Amino acid sequence: MFALCIESSHKRGMGHFFRALNILDYLRHEGESAIVCINEDEKSLRLLDERNVVYEIVDYGDVSSNWEKRLIHKYHINVWFLDKFETGTELAVHVKNEGILLVAVDDSGQGAELADLHFCSMLFHELRGKKIYAGKDYMILNPEIAKYRRQRTELKKILITLGGSDTYGVTVKIVQILKSKGYGADIIIGPNFRHIEQLEKAIDGSFTVYKTVPSLVSKFNEYDLAITGGGVTGFEANASGLPCLIIASELHEIDNGRYLASFGGARFAGYYKNMKESVFDLEEIDISSMSINGMNAFQLNGLENIYHEIRLYREA
Q1: Per-residue pLDDT of the chain (316 residues; tens, 9 = 90+)
Q2: Gyration radius (Cα) of the chain, Å
Q3: CA separation for the pair 51, 169 (Å, rounded)
Q4: From CA 25, how far away is CA 63, in angstroms rounded?
Q5: Virtual CA dihedral for 73, 62, 115, 49, nearest 10 degrees?
Q6: Which residues of 11-49 are buried (b: 16+ CB within 10 A; e: fewer)?
Q7: Does residue 88 contact residue 110 with C-beta atoms inside 8 Å?
Q8: What pTM, to 2 d.p., does this model score?
C-alpha cells in the first residue's frame, strides 16, 4: 500500500494535486493500492470524491501527535510517497521510525534528507536524500499527452492557463499585456481561482474564459501557444508540441522557467512581479521550431522510471 502525501490550496496551488492524480492512475495500472494524505481543501476533496479516491485529511502543522504512525498501521502502508514540495523533519522521522520506504519527488524540505529515494526532475539546488535520481528522465508527465502530440506550424490560437489557483492573479496581468499588443486568447481558470471579478473587468470580446476543463492535455490540442506558470503544466504542454511562454509565480519556479526555455520549446518571461513584456512580442516567435524542440526534449516514461527504482528497492 502506498501513501501519497500532497498539499493543495489556493495559496499552495494545485500542481501537486493534479500530478498526484497521474501517479494514482499509474499505481492502479500496476496493481498497487494507494491512499492520499491531503490537507483540508474543499475544491480538492470534491475532486477526489468525484474520482472515488480513498483519502485521509491530515494537518501538516501537527508535528507531535504522530498521525503518520496511525495511518501506516491502519492501512498497512509500506511506501510513503512525498509530493508536497516542503517536507519537515518531524514527518519524515515519524515515517522512518515505522521502518517503511520513504520516497520523495522534488522536495525542498529538510525532511527530504531522510528519503530513501529522492527523484529530482524539477529541483536543482540543495538536493537531499539517501539516494538521489536527478534529471528529466524522472519527470512525471500526463501519459495522455501521447494521444495529442502534434507539431504546430503557425500561431493562430493562444491559451492562458496559470494553474488550479493562480494565487497572485497573474492571469489578469497577462490579459492586460496581450490586449496592449492586440492579441486575444482563451483562458482556463482552475477550481481554486479567486480573481474572477478582476478578470471579468479586464477581458473583452477577444477573450473566452473556461472554468476548468475535463482534460487540460486534450484542450492543449486546440492551441498553438500556451502562456503558463513555472510548474509542470509548461513541461506537459511542451511535451505535447505546444510552445510556451513561462511566467514564474513563485521564486522557486524561476529555475523551472529557465530550465524549460533551455530546450528551445519555451520562452521565459521572468518572475511575475517584473515580467519582460518584450517576450510577448509574438510576431518574433518561430512556432514550428519551438514545437519540434518541445516534443524532442521530453519523454513520457518518467513515472515508469520512478516505479522501476521503487520496485527494485522493495525487492532488494
Answers
A1: 999 999 987 777 778 888 899 999 999 999 999 999 999 999 899 999 999 999 999 999 999 999 999 999 999 999 999 998 899 999 999 999 999 999 999 999 999 999 999 999 999 988 999 999 999 999 999 999 999 999 999 999 999 999 888 999 999 999 999 999 999 999 999 888 999 999 999 999 999 999 988 899 999 999 999 999 999 999 999 999 999 999 999 998 999 999 999 999 999 999 999 999 999 999 989 999 999 999 999 999 999 999 999 999 998 8
A2: 20
A3: 28
A4: 30
A5: 60
A6: ebbbbbbbbbbbbbebbeeeeeebbbbbbebebbbebbe
A7: yes
A8: 0.89
| Residue among 200, 194, 193, 233 at smallest CA distance from 217 | 233
Nearest CA to 11 out of 76, 72, 85, 117 is that of: 85
In this structure, are residues 103 and 119 in contact, taking their beta carbons and an 8 Å threshold?
A: yes
* Residue for grid cell 522534488: 106
